[in-house]
Amino acid sequence: MIEVDNISKQFGDKKVLEDVSCVFEQGKINLIIGGSGQGKTVLMKCVVGLFEVDKGRVLYDGRNFSEMSFGERKPIRQEIGMLFQGGALFDSLTVEQNVTFPLSMFTNMSVAEKRDRANFCLQRVNLENVNKLLPSAISGGMKKRVAIARAIAMNPKYLFCDEPNSGLDPKTSILIDELIKEITEEYNITTIINTHDMNTVMSIGEKIIFIYKGKKYWEGSNNDIMQSQNKELNDFVFASRWMKAVKQHF
Amino acid sequence: MVNLGIGSLWLVALTSAFMGAVITIQSAYNLVNPMVPLWAVGIVARDSIIIEFSPTIIMLVLAGKVGSNIASEIGTMRVTEQIDALEIMGINSSGYLVLPKIIAAIIICPVVVIVSMIIGITGGWIAGDLSGVVPSADYLKGLQNQFLPFNVTFAMIKTVVFAFIITSVPAYHGYYTNGGALEVGQSSTKGVVNSSILILIFDYILTQLILA
User: Fold this and answer.
1) Nearest chain B Cα to A152, which residue?
2) Can you tell me the distance from the alpha carbon of B100 to that of B77, in angstroms, rounded to the nearest whole number?
3) Cβ <8 Å between B89 and A50
4) Could you tell me the CA-to-CA distances from A194 to A135, A183, A208, B31, B38 in Å, in that order?
5) How many domains are contained in chain A?
């Protein structure tokens, strides 16, 4: 479980996050949703420590992450897996080397053990015979899956996904969503997804935090969204004609 | 080390050979005083190449080749979130990405500069002999005359300082890139320009400190 306690962040004079508090629950898919520029990426980066918060604290299972030094954060960071928007695979390494990278850095596994673990993780994301390929030789969807394989290689307790479906076709998007859901349930991970993909929101959003103008405007599940009277949330979620039709039908 | 040094050898060899040839021919052209023996061309060529041309010009050439490579590589890693991925894993990204490059350059650049000195002096010898400006015997006599081993030490000191500059400055600009492809290009340019300027400044400072 990750607790975000009253955090604020500003860049120069611009307040990007203001007194945001929320809890990301273990074994659930936690979504951060909101329009572009509303602060959801900054919130995620504050939670993982890529940005330091100006005020408030972030607790990983009760451990105050915000007050820790770089060295003290190391054990927690090794419990974190992150899927970046573009995959963020290391260009100069093959797919297998990308997946074994955290194992090489933080474990004493033998080469054979690392290869076995990489094969297991790659099979888990339905990828085979790509071990020796460079990231430049695989498709966008495959890159995302390799990034998921790398993120789960260390058996993380916390999985962060920054817009996992961006740039993917609808079918691959659904595959990625299902994969994240399966992995979350299988390993009882605290999963946090930053998205504005409504398919993801409606299909796997067990707990949803809506960020608007740097503040938490709404919190609930995908079922709650349909009954919500929150104007800003409804303007965002039901912006498209298709989503409006879904709500009317519901 | 392969990327920084071995991969640059052909460029270093080409530059050094022509540099040595030009220095020899120009020195011979300018030494018209009958009181100055022809073998002095060998001394001038040797010392110019060892003290100045190999450590400074070759490192300026490497600042362009290696510096732009480092700045654009690290800059691209920054804008494609690869550095964030390292940070998330708990890896000190600057130490992991930059330090090995600095150490590799400090080790390999002196080797490259020594190779440049050998090729430059050989290039001068060949050019002098082929053009008939300086006969081989005179050139070789000049090379062996009044040789100061400290000049090589001085050149190595300069090379190590310049090696640090051509890796750390572009790495800094690459590491702090913000934005996209345009900014990566700008970081690469800044890295090369600033490291070249620093090489020239430190060339003067080191010469003043050590030789003056």
Assistant:
1) B89
2) 16
3) no
4) 23, 17, 10, 74, 76
5) 1
Amino acid A176: pLDDT = 83
Least confident of A194-208, A234-248, B98-112: A234-248
The string of DSSP letters for A129-144 reads S-TT--GGGS-HHHHH
Q: With 0.90 as the threshold, say if the pTM is over it.
A: no
With left for phi above 0 and alpha for psi between -120 and 50, is residue A155 left, alpha or beta? Answer: left
User: Are B80 and A88 in contact (CB < 8 Å)?
Assistant: yes
pLDDT in tens, A177-235: 888 888 898 889 999 999 888 888 888 888 999 998 889 888 888 888 887 787 888 88
Q: Any idea what DSSP says for residue A205?
A: -
Long-range CB contacts (within 8 A, 24+) of B179-184: B179/B79, B180/B79, B181/B79, B183/B75, B183/B79, B184/B71, B184/B72, B184/B75, B184/B76, B184/B79
Find the domain containing A132 and state its range: 88-155
Cα–Cα distance for residue pair A97/A191, rounded to 1 Å: 25
Tell me if A146 is assigned to some domain.
yes
